[in-house]
Amino acid sequence: MLSELAAGEPLSPTAFGLSVHNAIGAMFSIDRSAASNIQALSGGKDTVEAAIVEACSLLADGADEVLLVCYDTPLPEPYLTYADEPQCLYGWAWRVGLPRAGAPVWRLELADPATAVTDKSGNGPVDGQGQPLLPHGLEVLHFVLSNDAGAGKSQLVHRADHAIWKWSRHG
Known about the structure:
The protein is of the alpha+beta class. It contains 5 helices and 5 strands, in the order ααααβββαββ. β4 (155-159) and β5 form a beta hairpin. The model has no long low-confidence stretch (mean pLDDT 84).
């Protein structure tokens, strides 16, 4: 859209409307005629963890469950120099609820920087230089869906912009 503006071309209201962070949630609520609470978060490398904290806050306030949707698209060419993780188009959704007997449970906590694991090998898939192969949103999804606990991968440590997060699998 900035390129169109710079070229003196008119902007599409549809393109603009779909470029804002809350567009997907708004489209979902319009399509479903849902008047439920919708939050849109963009927290850099902390986005998935911020979304989980928000979902848990809504559960603590009495929500039965929370639909958490995580998605991203590759940066446009002019912004690729700012990319700080692998780029790809993806999306996933979780229904987050209170723990139930017999259901798997994950824990997210702030890690103590003095004792946090610094070795990236315990995290998601990496290339030959130890760099992540996946964007963090997919790294978290891979951790939750994988059953690597027996291989010593019952934790995922993520050094983000503002915190060190530790995911762990229980049961």
